Amino acid sequence: MKKTIALLLLIALCVFQYVRTSSPDQDPYLTTDYSRLHPVKVERVVAGKEEEQLVRLVKDAKRKGLKVSIAGQRHSQGGHTYYKDGIVVDMTSYNKIIEVDSDAKRITLQAGATWEDAQKAINRYGLSVKTMQSLNPFTIGGSISINAHGRDIRNGSLISSVDSFRLLTADGQIKNVSRTENAELFPLALGGYGLFGIILDVTLDLTEDEVYRESTLLMDLSDYVDYFQREVLPNPAIKLHIGRISVADDSYFTEALAKNYTVDPSLPLDKYNKLESNEKWVAPGKLLFNLNRSTDWGKKLQWNLQTYVFTRQSDHIISRNNAMRAAYEFMDYSQPGANDQLQEYFVPLDRFDSFARRLGEIVKEDKLNLLNVTIRYVGKDREAMLSYAKDDMLALVCLFNTPLSEQGQRKMKDSVQRMIDEVIAHDGSYYLPYIAYPTLEQFQTIYPNYENFFEQKRMFDENELFMNYFYANYGSGRRIEEVAS
Amino acid sequence: MNVKWLIRSQSVATLAAGMIYPYYLLFLKNLGNSYSKYGLAFAVFTISSAAVSTWLGPRLDKHGTRIMVISSLGMMAAMFAFPWTSSYTLVLLLQLIMGTCNAMQRMSERLLLADSTEFVSRGITIGSYHFWTSIASGFAVILGGLLIDWLTINALFYMSALLYGVSAWVVWRASRASLSRKAEDTITF
Predict the structure, then answer these.
(1) Alpha carbon distances (Å) from A103 to A71, A106, A127, A207, A209
(2) Closest chain A C-alpha to B96 CA, distance in angstroms
(3) Close Cβ partners of B52 (under 8 Å, ≥ 6 residues apart)
(4) Closest C-alpha to A80, from A418, A481, A466
(5) Is the pLDDT of residue B77 over 90?
(6) Closest Cβ opposite residue A290 in set B131, B150, B155
């Protein structure tokens, strides 16, 4: 009897697990990206290894009429790295450091190298990256394809620190691209979402590694912009900055944390510049973040703990390279049928308060599960054709947990479109590496250069060899619903 | 020794092993860049397991339960150590220890099973033993997956270490009870 019960219990558990994990986002034979949405069958995934191999691959694909998509760590969420029945070039194995020129403060590396690889290569020379995301697992090629930005408030978006790169274009040619050579491709391929060719290697301008003192202040959200404009921007000693907005019930969109990294030249770099791992408390962090995803009291606990830990860390001393490698493993999430999805909205400083208020209201009205909101500053930078930094902007990076079901996604899409209407009303922009929720009209309103961008795409790649869902949705002239179906 | 204790202790040990085993393979594969390197780690495991068995054989009859306790404690130590390994050589060393523990566990398990059963009624006990250890393994794998989803693979290693600790304790307690029974029997005679 006992045995039958035990066996039945195990069988029942297996059936439950089977049903629980049978959603399309869990199908190992389909390809998707970080969003786990819209999984499709691709022709094949090819690991990039040699330059000649990639040239051959592009020529072969062209001859056979296959589409090519380019993938790094696949952290973009809008199908930028794959296309149905196409070839995915996985660049993560194309990752050598080619040269560090410490005198000129430059590094040249293959596009599949990550920021972590770059940091390891340059740290010993007392050098540091100018602009990158807050986290370091992303590939350089992927990051410049989305023209990333991060905690640095002095160096604009990533495009500003790119000196040059080599691009394998649709005709199988390799072109040197810089602001002086093949210059027309520079603002297109950077922030070009993989539509102009395979970025092979990149030369980045670097800056000096420095020693910072961290300081975190808890304040009313309504005081944040004023504080940022009066205390942070005019103080040249503050090099990095990040803000956070509370999503906990009792301080919802009313409390904020502002974290500054202020350079302290009196502290010797060699005492603090050993590269440290930030992944020290992954298991409790992951558990806490899971509680944050699942419950209101979890959100409260997370905010209170963050406030406590960050404000206690004030005066913590850290090198620039260590400050630019924040922990991220605690956010790993693989539950079937739901996922974390990012949205990022940029608004000019003087419109921030009003926009943040509206954002908070929409999230509440639509009952969205908002896990955290961080604030980053990015200075005006219109160099990339699809530039989001039309002005000096504050970016609100919002992480939502959403169901992947059709109904759940429809709801999320409606809410995002509402938020983007507010973005438009506040002269802002939204970031393009995320899910194709915005309507075509919203995209075209916010990125008025779109026509030129896509025309140039078709000029450099007339057969639309380089293909992905971003282009299919917003550039190919097809309606989003058609592409999605 | 009462066979129930053997089944319980080894079900807990199987729970600990089953929880880690499939994910441990993934962990090892991530360490090696080639399948050959991954294969080597397993070869080391089997070599130490085979080598130690020839030494253990003659000592098994006398120290069966002790060997079983040591095998669980050894596995506990290995599970605690795994998340802290920072080189492939250390992984090989742990594979070596785990191979040794595996030989200790397998051999003492068979011995104790044989000791606790008698001709004619052996099949039922062996069937029962196999059933409960297999069921434990089934629950373990599912639980292991959930644990990694919610926590980390490191947490899984620690959980497995704790379970090995429990299994060592269960065997140790049973062996003490059986020793004191033997002592009582001696006095009676």
Answers:
(1) 32, 8, 10, 11, 14
(2) 28
(3) B99, B100, B103, B104
(4) A466
(5) yes
(6) B150
Considering only CB atoms, A287 lies closest to which of B128, B131, B151, namely: B151
Which one, of A434, A430, A433, A370, lies nearest residue A398 by Cα?
A370
DSSP state of A399: E
Average pLDDT over residues B152-159: 89
Quote the pLDDT of residue A485. Answer: 47
* Gap between the Cα atoms of A473 and A391, Å rounded: 26
Residues A275, A123: contact at Cβ < 8 Å? yes
Cβ-count burial A225-262 (b if 16+ within 10 Å, e if not): beebeeebbeeeebbbbbbbbbbbeebbbebbbbbbbb
Per-residue model confidence (pLDDT) at position A277: 82
- Pick B131's closest partner by Cβ from A3, A283, A329: A3
Count of C-beta atoms within a 10 Å radius of residue A419: 24
Residue B22, pLDDT score: 79
ipTM summary value: 0.81
Cβ–Cβ contact B169 with A under 8 A: no
Minimal CA–CA distance to A10: which of B3, B135, B164?
A: B135
8-state DSSP, A392 = S
Range of the domain at B110: 3-188
CA angle A135, A137, A139 (to 5 degrees): 115
- Mean pLDDT across A463-482: 84
The alpha-carbon gap from A6 to the nearest alpha carbon of chain B, in Å, equals 7
- Of A390, A431, A378, the residue nearest A161 (C-alpha): A378
- Cβ–Cβ below 8 Å for B138 and A10: yes
Task: Choose between B119 and B188: higher pLDDT.
Answer: B119
Closest CA to A329 of A273, A399, A277, A395: A277
d(CA A392, CA B45): 60
CB-CB under 8 Å, B150 with A287: yes
Structural domains counted in chain B: 1
How many distinct helices (H) and strands (E) make up chain A?
16, 17
**pLDDT tens digits, residue range A68-81?**
999 999 999 999 99
Coil vs helix vs strand at A53: helix
- Distance, first Cα to last Cα, chain B: 19
Alpha carbon of A332: minimum distance to chain B alpha carbons (Å) = 8
**Any CB–CB contact under 8 A between B84 and chain A?**
no
Per-residue pLDDT, B189: 42
In terms of C-beta density within 10 A (0-12 exposed, 13-18 middle, 19 or more buried), how is residue B186 classed?
A: exposed
pLDDT exceeds 50 at position B188: no
Q: Which residue of B has its CA nearest to A12?
A: B139
B window 105-164, beta carbon within 8 A of A: 128, 131-132, 135, 138-139, 142, 145, 149-152, 154-155
Rounded CA-CA distance A236/A265 in Å is 13
Domains of chain A with bracketed CATH: 93-208 (3.30.465.10), 211-436 (3.40.462.10)
Minimal Cα distance from A286: which residue of B? B151
What pLDDT digit, counting tens, does each position of A439-468 carry? 999 999 999 999 999 999 999 999 999 999
Copy the structure tokens of residue A455.
């025309």
Beta-carbon separation of B135 and A10 below 8 A: yes
Tens of pLDDT, residues A122-147: 999 999 999 999 899 999 999 999 99
How far apart are the C-alpha atoms of A75 and A1, rounded to whole Å?
Answer: 50
